[in-house]
Amino acid sequence: MPRGTITSDRTGIAVYDLDRTLTDSGSWAPFLAFWLRHEAPWRTALLPLVGLGALAHGLGLLSRGGLKSWSHRWLIGWRVPQARIAQVAARFAEAFVARHGLTLAREAIAADVAAGRRVLIASASHGFYVRAIAARLGVVDVVATEAQRDSGWLLCMLDGPNCYGPAKRDAVVTWLENQGLGDAVVHFTSDHHSDLPCFDLALASGGMVRCANPSPRLAAIAAERGWPVVRWGRIRASLLERA
Questions:
Q1: Contacts of 54 (CB under 8 A, 6+ apart)
Q2: pLDDT band at 236 (very low <50, low <70, confident <90, very high)
Q3: What is the pLDDT of residues 169-201, one digit of tens each?
Q4: Is residue 177 within a helix (H) or strand (E), and if so which, with residue range?
C-alpha cells in the first residue's frame, strides 16, 4: 500500500489540494512564465506592473483574487480566445506535471481510485489550466478559481470568489450538492493551513484528513490535533506564491 494512503472502511470522495500537495511547487507563476516564454515574450516588459500589484497586495490594498486578475491582465491579456488558452494549458500541464508532479501523490490518488473513491482536485489556482493538470494526473473532477468567459473569450476578471480558504470549502460543498453527493463522506488532503475549513468539512462528514508536505503552521496544527502527516517530496520555496 502506498505510503500515506488513507485507509477507511467507508468509501466516499477524496479531495486533494493541488499546489505543493500533488506537486512540488505552486503553479500560477510557472504558468505565467510558460505563457510569456511561448506566447507573448514582449509582455515581460510589463512585469514591473505586476510588481506594483504585489506591493498593493502586501499593503492590503489588493485582495489575493485581485492580484490574480491584475497579473492576468498584464501578463496574459485582458481577453484571450478560449481555444488558445486551452491549447497552451494542455502543453503547460504536460511539462509541469512531468517536472513537478510528485510520484507518491499520484500513488495516493491511484489508491483512492482503487478503493472506490471519487477524486476531486480543489485548488485556488485558475481552472483553465488546473483542469489540464488534473487530466494529466488522471482526475476528471475539479473545483478551482474561475475566470470570466464571454462569447469564446477568456477574460482576466474572476467569475466568483478566489477559491481559497472558506471559499474553497464553499466550492467543494456546492460541487457535492450539484453532484447529488451532499451526504458523502469526504476525505481531504492538503499542505496548507488556509485549507482548515476543508479539513473541518471532511471531519464533520466522518471522513479522514491528511497533511501532505505541510506548511510549518499546518504541521504544528497537525501535531496538536493528532492529524496524520506525510512527506511526498521536497517542496520548492517561492517568493511569489505562498499557497
A1: 67, 240
A2: confident
A3: 999 999 999 999 999 999 999 999 999 999 999
A4: helix 166-178
Q: Cell digits for 40? A: 507573448
Contact yes or no for 14/119 (Cβ under 8 A): yes
User: With contact defined as beta carbons under 8 Å apart, do 75 and 35 qualify?
Assistant: yes
- Tell me the CA distances in angstroms from 214 to 49, 123, 230, one per residue in order: 32, 16, 8
Domains along the sequence of the chain with CATH:
13-230 (3.40.50.1000)
CB 77 within 8 A of CB 40: yes
Cα 230 → chain centroid: 18
What does the alpha-carbon distance between residue 177 and residue 36 come to, in Å, rounded to a whole number? 38
Beta bridge partners of 37: none
pLDDT one-digit tens code per residue, 82-132: 999 999 999 999 999 999 999 999 999 999 999 999 999 999 999 999 999
Rounded CA-CA distance 106/235 in Å is: 16
What's the one-letter identity of residue 207? G
